Amino acid sequence: MEKSVRQQFLDRYDDLADAIFRHCYFRVSDREVALDLMQETFLKTWKYLDAGNDINDVKAFLYKVANNMVIDYYRKKKTISLESITENEESNFEPSDDSHTKIVSDSEFNLVMQMVEELDGPHKEVLIMRYIDGLSPKDIAEITGDSANSISVRIVRAMEKLKDKMK
Amino acid sequence: MEDQFSKIEELLKKTGKSVRLSWLEKRKAKKFLTSQMGVNSSSYFQKTVIFKYVAVPLAIVLLIGGGVVEASMKTLPGDFLYPVKTNVTEPVKGLVYIGKPEKKLAYVTTLAKRRLEEMVKLGTESQLDSKTQENLLAKFDKHRKKAKNIAEDISVGREIALESDLESVLRAHQRIFSDLDQQDAKEKIQNRVAIVVKERSQVETKLSLASGLQKEATEKEKEASLVVSGLEGKIKNAQNERLSKQAQIQIGLANQAVLNGKKDIEAGSYAEAISSFEKAKRLTNEADIVYEYALAPKDVPEEEIALLAEKTELPPEEEPVVATLLVEEEPENIYEYFQESLERAAGPGATPDIYLNIFSSLEVSDFDGIVANGGIYQLVNGEILFVETQDLDDGIRKVEIESEGYERLLINIATRLGVELSSKEVVDSILGSIR
After folding, report:
1. What pTM does this model have?
2. B413, B364 in Cβ contact below 8 A?
């Protein structure tokens, strides 16, 4: 029996809310903001569907919307230029103390994020999407518009750069 | 090089996993999303047929077969196969318990609780309308009455256990619907709390007249201790401090009830002992349901559980405590202390309105669920109303808050303030903050 589209969408929310939240969090480094952006991402996607549009790949669409939400957030914030989203910056990630499971210590968390932040934009993005968002190279290609092959190459190069930094 | 790559990969994955939504955050965001999604859909949805509730004749169900019947178990009101669940699957499963009253009782009680769980699932998705509430609660009432009849035929001990169990479940769901901001559902459940409190009180009277309760009292002591220590163990390594504190408040009260029960056994007051142990189970069960609702750990993937297990640090070995006292100190009863302090300020027999006048920082909601002589205080539309649940002998003043009511009052205030009830000093600070 077929579920309603509404229920199918809510099922996708159950599957992907965490991932989209994580995607936003590692770009805005603020839990509350990431929550709002995640919520808005799903709402905007729903409104797009509700207006009669088709979406072939809901997952990729959600990530694209989330990326746009992050960019809009920085535009509105105006404390940092649009270009500097992809520039090297000091990491200011502060994991909330009671709202995530302490699988890694805060010092490990900060060290890793510091290293990732020091990478250039495309390498940083692809590393976050691959290992933190848990997306496959094919998923990433769908979101960025690149080929899966070039994404794979970029991932390997990003890991090499990260490895050099951690020496 | 490969090793280093794997190490970095592992570290990045772990870092990613360390950031996730809590179940409460996820649920609240979903609630917001569903409220914005609206019910009426565009022509896009006409591509999909939405099946609504229909009555399904038994003959058709039998033709469909066992797979469908089992699939019906996952359904909720409004789903196509939900009638199969309640009219066929559940009754058929209950047939195996014919001639086994204890198991039948447990099964029927499970069905009653299931109706409340279905209400919560619908409530979290903003799909619990008034009609569905009424239907589910009518089914709950039916199961409850059936369970009561079965329990009456078994023993008075089973009766009191049933009333206690259902009271804890109802109180927990009252809190859940308050959290879901669904006042209508909350009030309907509140009314049932009042009924069950009244029935429990009647059964306790029956219990006090029964004999040969020593063995039952001893068994209840073991059950109560197990239940309380079970929840204590569960929240011991909990990540969410706020939720653990809330559960701790009730655990403290439950532990006190267990101690009271033990004293009653020593004094040969077995009926009182059973009541105390049931109270301990009731408080713990209520806390457990609310804790689980807020945490909902079912979404944690297997690999994360394994990672958590790796990272859990054992507490340092404690130095053995050398006994310096020859006589065991009695733990202070903070709940009696609280009651005495309030009664000193307002005089014995004060009612909520008097307390609200004297203690300016008390809130009306603090008195929700407070048991009094002859009834219970309930929060309805922002007001505290006294709901009568029993007739009393002449001379006993109704509306006077009972000791159990003062305990609940202290819990409500402590929960609101987010403090753990660990000592008289904490109670003093609470008293200071409500003045």
Report:
1. 0.53
2. no
